[in-house]
Amino acid sequence: MTTALYRTSYLDPTGISARRVKEAPQPKRLLIANSKGGCGKTTLSTNLATYFARQDAKAALIDYDPQASSYLWIKSRHPSLPPIFSIKAFEKAAVGATRTWQLKVPTDTTHILLDSPAGLSGHLMNDLIRQADVIIVPVVPSPIDIRAAARFIQEMLLSQTFRAHPKPIGVVANRVRRNTLCYSRLRSFLSTLRIPFITSIRDTQYYVRAAEHGLGLFDMQHPSQRDVVEWNPLIEWIEFNLAKYDKKAVNH
After folding, report:
1. Does pLDDT of 21 surpass 60?
2. What is the rounded CA–CA span in Å between residue 19 and residue 141?
3. Distance of CA 12 to CAs 20, 51, 55, 101, Å?
4. If pLDDT is split at 50, 70 and 90, which confidence band does 25 have?
5. 35, 120 Cβ separation under 8 angstroms
6. What is the pLDDT of residues 105-153, one digit of tens each?
7. On the CB side of 45, how many CA atoms lie within 13 Å of its CA?
8. Sign of the CA dihedral 74, 86, 7, 224?
């Protein structure tokens, strides 16, 4: 694969917008979470990381999944692409090092993506909720995934940490084929939730092929406008909710 297939400039011709991410004293933390494996947490994490990196931000991706998909994706990125810092949070801290030191990001980091593992629950779930500024839950349109997502969302909303410190939560339908019964059932399920259904990401091998080369949608020289349109509501939702935290910080 040659560098001609993706953008080496930091300009943003994707059509999303010309927005620039403002620097903040503390990095914003986005938790991508679902206890069900295979729902596309890494796809959301890596593509969001490329979005922020393309907006002149300093992005870091903390991989809590023992499969190390996010970490290996970053390691496969071409040096000419905007850098994304990575941490293998699934590994135990080295002898003599603290957990805090292990998870330390560069001081100029503006956005941290927390890619959670399958089976997320208990202490780790509460810890990640506590860290997060916003939470994104990807759901695949299948009966098994819908039931698993319902249980996970309920567990998260009822957790002591969330009740004490509620955070904005949004759901993303992932790997979607719109003209199917499963998708209709997923939409019906999401309509019953008291949290936003943000957008649907279509089922395409495009993301799989891009991931093999450490790429995301926002790295591509000529991204599919159909895909850009699907991601736009998610970007807008994230920026809106992160901006609310900035306003709260200023008021205090």
Report:
1. no
2. 32
3. 10, 9, 7, 34
4. low
5. yes
6. 999 999 999 999 999 999 999 999 999 999 999 999 889 999 999 999 9
7. 32
8. positive
Q: One-letter amino acid identity for 90?
A: F
Residue-wise over 74-83: b if at least 16 C-beta within 10 A, else e? beebeeebbe
AA identity, residue 109:
T
pLDDT band at 13 (very low <50, low <70, confident <90, very high): very low
At residue 67, the 3 state secondary structure works out as coil
Would you state the torsion angle of the CA atoms of residues 64, 245, 163, 135, taken in this order, to the nearest 10 degrees? -40
Q: What is the Cα gyration radius of the chain?
A: 18
Helices (H), the chain: 41-54, 69-75, 99-102, 122-131, 143-158, 160-164, 181-191, 206-212, 225-251
Residue with tokens 């994490």: 45
Q: Which amino acid belongs to residue 199?
A: T
Place of tokens 């000419």: 80
